[in-house]
Amino acid sequence: MKKLLTAVAFITALIIAAFISCCFYYIAITSSVKFDESKLSGAAQSCAVFDGDGERVDFGSYSEYVEIKNIPENLKNSFIAIEDKRFYTHNGVDYRSMLRATKNNFFSGKIKEGASTISQQLVKNAFLSGEKTVNRKLCEIKLARQLEKRYSKNEILEMYLNKIYFGNGAYGVAAAAKIYFGKTTEELTLSECATLAAVVKAPASYDPYSYADKCKNRRNLVLKEAFSQGYINESEYEDAVKRDLTLKTQNSSRENAFAAEAINRAMEILRLSSADDLNGFRIYTSVKKSALECISSASDYSLNSNYACVITNNKSGKIIAYKSDIGALKRCPASSAKPWLIYAPALQEKIITEATKILDEKTDFGGYSPSNYGDKYYGFINAKDALCKSLNVPAVKIAESLGSEKIRYYAKKSGVEYTNDDLSVALGNLSGGITIFQLASAYSPFSRGGDYTDYSLIDKIVSPKGKVIYEAKETYEKVFSRGTCDVINDMLYETAKSGTAKKLNTLPFAVCAKTGTGGNKNGNTDAYCVAYTPDYTVVVWLGNADGSVMPNGVPRRYRPRRVVGSI
Predict the structure, then answer these.
(1) What angle do CA 118, 108, 139 make, to 5 degrees?
(2) What's the pLDDT tens digit per position in 247-277?
């Protein structure tokens, strides 16, 4: 019995000693942390983005401050339900959630859950860096408790909703409501409120434009939590989950759209779930002002549709310009995929040559019957002319000979993955779609002697302490032989000269090009043009964010006034 009491006493002493040590450690780490109330006011950007000329990019126009009285209950409740359900009862730190997260992370062997309250998130964004360390967490706890002593819950919620990042350059709920829905916060529906609460979890991953289904699933989770916690009734819940994402179909042109894309990429590089974790970081991009000036605004042509354009430097492997009024959507590339997805692999595998004759006629491929544009067929036609005219039947016949495994193999080497196996992939019908950045990179072997590169947008990322924690290094992988690329270049040179991209034949220099148009019986939904020289590649997309038919189709008079200029 005496030994047992001794052991208990010893263990108790160790626990007390450990507790005292932790207290001293906490005091030592947090003693220098200052609560600066001035940093809490207004909407703020979490990081700085610089262009390729070293100048800081101003996209603060997407920050707006809105008072709590103008924030609807559904919006406040959506955030509380999904982010901090005990917001109104804790003192800044939810110790119950913290213990649960610690246990789950310990048994999983990795950080799967966070337990930051709204108060903790606010002070982190306002006062601290995004570095994930124990010391920062301790400082966060101290500041959150101080915050709760100085401000009411409504004041804290107001500041939080005006600080957080929603993606696409939007800081704060007011800017997010305007960018995504074209509304004030007061005009938002329950479904839209839940959508905004869903996005902040990971703006890059839950971008409603690029990942609509994923965002919708997260939105429905927010609604489920709001219902289970009594913020909405059953009929409100059932009505909201049935609604589609009612996104704004056309935003105003954003000169610095690349800054929002840079933030998304920085989050992916650093494996961050929230842009708020980039607080204090500096992101240096490769975008050049001179290159941006070479992109003609689609609004000049009264297209009544959204647009995106990217320019790459093929020598350096960098993105030097990106403009969009809607963000980097994932869409099916249509016929713009044919050169790298079908023709180049078939040339590489010696299934075809430039001169191979292919019978172009109405054909049934086991229930799949693709049609050429205008239902026009040419009989026996060589592969070069078939690509120049962007004929669908020959492309599908080549794909059938190539086989789905080979197509998928070369697609993956070109930075593209998809899940469908049907022959419609030959016409660019890729499940999930791809971004224009992926499309530009897929063409990279043709201007680089067969070497694929994933064009980089970010040159380097610098931590709040001034340490370079990421620096871009050019990577490449051989996909096609130089001979294959020479043949494709010859084919696409002819396409720009007399084929589907012949409107580019007035340029004062040689260019290779390919177009792609997707749509349905009602009209065009997507239009692409990819043009490249040994030095530069330009990719242009036109369409609507919601995938609807473009009101004016693609006007005949539309073509870029300048593809590349003096860069």
Answers:
(1) 35
(2) 875 444 455 788 888 988 998 898 876 676 7
